[in-house]
Design a protein that fits this description.
By secondary structure, this protein is an alpha/beta fold. Helix content is 42%, strand content 22%. The radius of gyration is 18 Å and the shape is globular.
């Protein structure tokens, strides 16, 4: 088994787990939904547009596109996620499909969007290549990913605590850098390399509101795949120090209603040449 294949299997197995998918929906979607409108705006999604939502998860982007009068289709590599989306939005269309080998003809869509999914693919360049293939000339692509960890505090605090008190090397399958597309130069170059033109890149502010400073560690441990596996791989003796460091980081963001962690997204977009 190749490292790429191993990483793909690792990600797919993680998101097929019903508990992980449900916890992500319960905890992280409160954050990711904050940038959906900006994502759809970047892809120029409007009434009548044929929209492909890649890595649809629980289907929130599809629902938002439909509310604009667009004609959306959501796909995900996880059957569990597709079932969750169909249960939540039974009147909308969802399918299980591979972002790196889309089962659609050329020029099938006016817009292709991907919310926080590109960093979970073993070959994101292949996914962008498929996006440009299925877009009509002049159609638009847009994707969102988390900002760099020093700004997306929910993840940055966890990884900083692991670096300080544990180890990031816990034997996970090799995969792409989770924050590769958080860098503007990487996102723009990837879009250009796929054949897109006029790329753009912007930051969208989001926040993760917590009522308990210990909640972040618990949520990351149950609502994610790669970060959760990294936590599970720690020496048990290191876990209390990691947990305490995460708690201390959260405490720095106390406000009158609890804790407000900055969790900005970045959105990159571009057009297929006419």
């Amino acid at each position: 088994m190749t490292q790429d294949r191993s990483f793909a299997d690792f990600e797919r197995a993680g998101w097929e787990d019903a508990a992980t998918a449900a916890d992500y929906d319960r905890n992280l979607s409160l954050v990711t939904r904050q940038s959906i409108d900006a994502l759809l705006d970047a892809a120029a999604v409007s009434a009548g547009a044929r929209v492909l939502d890649v890595a649809t998860g629980a289907g929130y982007v599809v629902e938002a596109a439909a509310s604009r009068g667009a004609r959306p289709l959501g796909i995900d590599f996880s059957d569990t996620q597709v079932r969750l989306a169909r249960e939540r939005y039974p009147g909308l269309q969802f399918e299980c499909a591979n972002a790196e080998a889309l089962p659609f003809a050329e020029a099938s869509f006016d817009a292709v969007v991907n919310a926080f999914g590109l960093c979970h693919l073993p070959h994101p360049a292949a996914a962008l290549g498929e996006a440009i293939r299925v877009l009509r000339p002049g159609g638009r692509v847009a994707f969102s990913v988390w900002d760099l960890p020093e700004r997306a505090i929910g993840f940055g605090a966890v990884y900083a605590a692991i670096r300080a008190h544990g180890s990031l090397d816990v034997g996970l399958p090799a995969g792409p850098d989770f924050f590769f597309f958080s860098h503007e130069e990487n996102a723009v170059e990837a879009l250009r390399a796929a054949g897109f033109v006029s790329p753009s890149f912007r930051v969208v502010e989001q926040e993760w509101r917590l009522v308990d400073p210990d909640a972040l560690f618990a949520m990351v441990a149950t609502s994610t795949v790669r970060a959760a596996a990294t936590l599970r791989g720690q020496d048990p003796a290191a876990v209390p120090a990691i947990r305490a460091a995460v708690r201390a980081a959260v405490m720095a963001y106390r406000d009158t209603e609890g804790f407000a962690l900055p969790m900005p997204a970045v959105i990159a977009a571009a057009a297929k040449p006419d």
